[in-house]
Amino acid sequence: PDARQGKRRRVDGGDADAGADAGGPGAEREPGPRRGLPAWPVGTLTPWRLLCRAGRSQEAIEERSASPEAPAAPVGRLPEAASEPAGPGPVLGGLARRRAPKVQPFLPVWLANPSCVKKNVTEDLVPIEDIPEVHPDLQRQLKAHGISAYFPVQAAVIPALLESAADGFLVGRGGYQPSDLCVSAPTGSGKTLAFVIPVVQALLHRVVCHVRALIVLPTKELAQQVSKVFNIYTDATPLRVALVTGQKPLAKEQESLVQKTADGYRCLADIVVATPGRLVDHIDQTQGFSLQQLRFLVVDEADRMIDSMHQSWLPRVMAAAVPSSGPAAPCALLQRWRPAAMTAASTSCPQMPLQKLLFSATLTQNPEKLQRLGLYQPRLFSTQLPHRDPGDAKDPEGKYAFPAGLMHRYVPCSLSAKPLAVIHLVLGMHLSRALCFTNSRENAHRLFLLVQAFGGVSVAEFSSCYGPGHRRKILKQFEQGKIQLLISTDATARGIDVPGVELVINYDAPQYLRTYVHRVGRTARAGKTGQAFTLLLKVQERRFLRMLAEAGAPELARHEVPSKLLQPLVPRYEEALSQLERTVKEEYRQKVA
Ligand SMILES: Nc1ncnc2c1ncn2[C@@H]1O[C@H](COP(=O)(O)OP(=O)(O)OP(=O)(O)O)[C@@H](O)[C@H]1O
């Protein structure tokens, strides 16, 4: 409708920019005709425009009628009732340019009234026995993996999801399509298990193997991490998990998805964990790969996945899951249509549900963005109250929540002192695992070479410069504690769960709050404590701190690194710099050759 309104305005010769920040009906906010512009002859107004104008104040009509330039309009009559011929006629609306009133943004009810999830993963735990709906085998598995109580997000989401599959996964409760769920909870708060447990339980008693759950994640490393968790909880079940990320050749992945039989294809995976690009490859190229029985579509790191919607992976998944021509067998007991408004016809036959589940620590509250996912009667679980005004300092709830055990500070720093500050922090704190983020692969590489040349710290770098095999090896060594400092681009900023990361350093200040939330969220996970330091140049300080303050993030304390502490490191550092110069030249020479 907005597009149509804009077009009409232009056709009518109106001010095309008038509705640029439109959020509601344009008529309320559109300025009156400019001096010098032709008056609006009634005959050229569309009914839509007339209604909008008629809906404006009587005062405006009277004001216009009183104007000496304008022929009098019949006061109190709707303009369409006027019988003037087309051509110069009564002009509706005032001459004076009025400021368009600011339209307050408003949230749809489901976003404005989330089911509140408690934040504190150390205090608000729910013992496993308190949620008896979870299958005893899964409860045993949880305990075997050291989990004796659910974190708050799990205690809220698991029962809700199990409820929607209480009549079996093939039909929603009472034959109705279940609500889609959106979950927003801090980093390290256990969102993965919040979907793994109910999905596994819902599929436990499936008879025929079909792809029933599809989990889509932005990176190969994350997909691998999530598939590992699924493997743990499906280990003692007939359910099979396939990982499709492009780490293996397409043919190898196809072998894990389908098997050719005498009468067609047999599905080999109940749960598919995938990155979007490779998933689309399989939809296009893997014969027998079908999503028509899909029951759960889990979108982890949902805000990032919404940003990657230009890859149009979601329409491809939906087209594969819901045939556009309607149910293939109209007389089949269970059918699937695209979720739409409920009508008598749509409820006459039980629906085979497809439920979308969105998870993120920084889930967008922008309804327009969420709308792109085509959610059906969504429900939001959130640790944050709906954000009213980002600039409202009195708003006790920030835009995003941070883990309770996280202590974050910033270090004022000059450009040349940044590498030394990193070395000082890592050496001085005697840490076993620290993660340092840069904004580019070049910065990560140079910092890595410099720290390596300095010595005294086992260091590695992680970026998309390396292949998936090498990256996997580096992450494993980091997990095992063989690497003390991992210098990384934002490739590890999201979702990566390495227990025991005690320190995060933002060597380069992140440009966006979301990036900051995810980076610092690599520490202080699962109720542990952790520290995060952001190195800030003088010119960055104000902007960065304002960005955090505007989002309601807790105020960062300043952490000075006195130069007298750095002084003893300088001679070694200068040697390392010369070594770096030699290495960079050598690398360049090799590249050119
Ligand atoms: N109930 C629990 N008790 C103890 N540990 C748990 C529990 N649930 C999850 N964990 C652990 O907490 C860690 C973080 O969990 P997870 O990776 O699911 O967090 P997340 O909310 O997805 O974080 P992110 O937003 O960064 O992806 C994992 O190591 C996981 O094993």
What are its keywords?
seven-stranded parallel sheet; Rossmann fold; 593 residues; eight-stranded parallel sheet; 19 strands; globular; alpha/beta; binds adenosine-5'-triphosphate
Characterization of this structure:
This protein is α/β, with parallel strands linked by helices. The chain folds into three domains: 2-82, no CATH class; 109-324 and 351-382, P-loop containing nucleotide triphosphate hydrolases (Rossmann fold), CATH 3.40.50; 406-592, Rossmann fold. It is 35% helix and 13% strand. It contains 20 helices and 19 strands. It has helices at 2-11, 47-55, 58-66, 109-112, 136-144, 152-164, 191-203, 220-234, 250-257, 276-285, 302-307, 313-321, 367-371, 418-429, 441-454, 468-479, 513-520, 538-550, 563-566, 570-592, and strands at residues 115-116, 126-127, 149-150, 181-184, 213-216, 241-244, 258-261, 264-267, 271-274, 296-300, 355-360, 379-382, 406-412, 434-437, 459-462, 485-488, 503-506, 530-536, 557-558. It has an eight-stranded parallel sheet. A seven-stranded parallel sheet has the order 15-16-14-17-18-13-19, with helices on both faces. Strands 2-3 form a two-stranded antiparallel ribbon. Helix 17 (513-520) links the parallel strand 17 (503-506) and strand 18. The longest helix has 23 residues, at 570-592. Mean pLDDT is 82; it is low at 1-85 and 390-396. The structure holds adenosine-5'-triphosphate. Residues 147, 149-151, 154, 185, 187-193, 361, 495, 497, 499, 521, 525-526 line the site of adenosine-5'-triphosphate.
